[in-house]
Amino acid sequence: MAVTVTDNEPGDLVDPVEVSSPRSWKRAFADLAAGWRQRPLWGYLGWQDIKQRYRRSVLGPLWISISMGVIALGLGILYSALFQVSIAQFLPHVAVGLLIWNFISGCIIEGSEVFISNEGLIKFLPAPLSLHIYRLVWRQTLFFLHNMVVWLALMIIFPHPLGLTSLLAFPAFALLALNGAWIAILAGILATRFRDIPPIIASVTQLIFYLTPIVWSVDILSDNPAVRERAQLVELNPVFHFVEILRQPLLGQEIVGRYWLVAGAITIVGWTAALVCLRNYRSRVAYWV
């Protein structure tokens, strides 16, 4: 009697009649769809992650906003003095930059360990791999929403001309979340196979922070003829475009269209690479962890 052998890993929802290769686009997209349908589960787990982190704390999750506000205030005062710029102009720039950077760096660094840190769930819980990706992005979104309190306070203290263009912050953040998801998929699978990847990613992420105009401004450097041309090289940094498409509407600044075009192109290329990786290696993650 002929026996058909399949490579089914935990979390696969496979029709018993249908047998397909573990390396198939159908299974990759089915994993993403199945994970999305389990929104109540990863939504609850993401919220519990935050509650657990601040368990028995008097202020609880408010520490998220307090710590971010203190860092933004300190850096804003320091660099506004160094660059001789009005603190009313520079502090919101730094604070919003840190707000966006915390989301980006969280998706990158925690994304590289998303499957390693969930080893027990992957091995013993029949759930799609994408559930852990959605949980990560949701957790980072909650951190972002907590930190929006700092932005609101700054808009009250230092009013900016917010208009209808500020509504672009919603699609900008959605684009940011989409990129956070593909980064977590790609980095998570690679790091599960090669355990040297997470510390390398952490080091590179720290370097990217200094290369991205978070605590410094391209406009300020562009005013100096000696470094004007070199300052424009920042556009070679892909993270710069994602910071700007969200910072500009949040601060009521002029919207630059090319930043959106570059961010959109990176999103397409990134998701293509992530889907290829998910298609080819998702069945092996349960064994690699």
From TrEMBL:
<protein>
    <submittedName>
        <fullName>ABC transporter permease</fullName>
    </submittedName>
</protein>
<keyword id="KW-1133">Transmembrane helix</keyword>
<feature type="transmembrane region" description="Helical">
    <location>
        <begin position="94"/>
        <end position="116"/>
    </location>
</feature>
<feature type="transmembrane region" description="Helical">
    <location>
        <begin position="197"/>
        <end position="216"/>
    </location>
</feature>
<keyword id="KW-0813">Transport</keyword>
<feature type="domain" description="ABC-2 type transporter transmembrane">
    <location>
        <begin position="43"/>
        <end position="249"/>
    </location>
</feature>
<keyword id="KW-0472">Membrane</keyword>
<comment type="similarity">
    <text>Belongs to the ABC-2 integral membrane protein family.</text>
</comment>
<keyword id="KW-1003">Cell membrane</keyword>
<keyword id="KW-0812">Transmembrane</keyword>
<feature type="transmembrane region" description="Helical">
    <location>
        <begin position="136"/>
        <end position="158"/>
    </location>
</feature>
<feature type="transmembrane region" description="Helical">
    <location>
        <begin position="58"/>
        <end position="82"/>
    </location>
</feature>
<feature type="transmembrane region" description="Helical">
    <location>
        <begin position="259"/>
        <end position="278"/>
    </location>
</feature>
<feature type="transmembrane region" description="Helical">
    <location>
        <begin position="170"/>
        <end position="190"/>
    </location>
</feature>
<dbReference type="Pfam" id="PF01061">
    <property type="entry name" value="ABC2_membrane"/>
</dbReference>
<dbReference type="InterPro" id="IPR013525">
    <property type="entry name" value="ABC2_TM"/>
</dbReference>
